[in-house]
Amino acid sequence: MTPAEASVGKQTDAAHEGGEFNQLVNHHYLTEEQFGIVSETLQRNLATSINLYLKFKKYHWDIRGRFFRDLHLAYDEFIDEIFPSIDEQAERLVALGGSPKNAPEDLARYSVVKVPTETVRDARTQVADLVSDLSRVGKGYRDDSGTVDDAEDHATADMYNGYAGTIDKIRWMLQAMMDDEQLN
């Protein structure tokens, strides 16, 4: 059973928590079960994208040494490629009748990327950590594309395929930097 399938019936978006201002809207072409699957992936990927953004920013601020300028600028370029997905995923969840959870504890709960609390200045350590995260995030988008496609939400599957391509490109560029023996 996939994580998305396991979450069916659980409240992964704020609209399903009830309350005066959390009125559900029509899920359009999705059943409640399909929406549960799709909303779980959207919530997880939204939290992951926010944490990935924050991690790149943290490393952007922390980097020191010989590769400072190259990585400082590269991290901002990668952030610019990732950032639009945050709003797109949140708005997709809302368009389908959900409501994003984005409090810090929700980000920690749903994200597959953890933002370090310690200062990491070493270029190789930063890049290796990001490559590992991006490998996991890219695989997650590909897996979730199939999951939401099976749940009859082809539009969200298309979004995920595009994000996977972006993540794969960033991962490739960072992995290429790892080939430099002087990256220390």
Automatic annotation (TrEMBL):
Domain (Ferritin/DPS) ranges: 41-180
Highest rank taxon of the organism: Bacteria
InterPro entries given in the database record: DPS_DNA-bd, DPS_DNA-bd_CS, Ferritin-like, Ferritin-like_SF, Ferritin_DPS_dom
Single GO term (MF): ferric iron binding
PROSITE patterns: DPS_1
Similarity-based family: Belongs to the Dps family.
Protein name as catalogued: DNA starvation/stationary phase protection protein
Species: Deinococcus detaillensis
Lineage, highest ranks first: Bacteria, Thermotogati, Deinococcota, Deinococci, Deinococcales
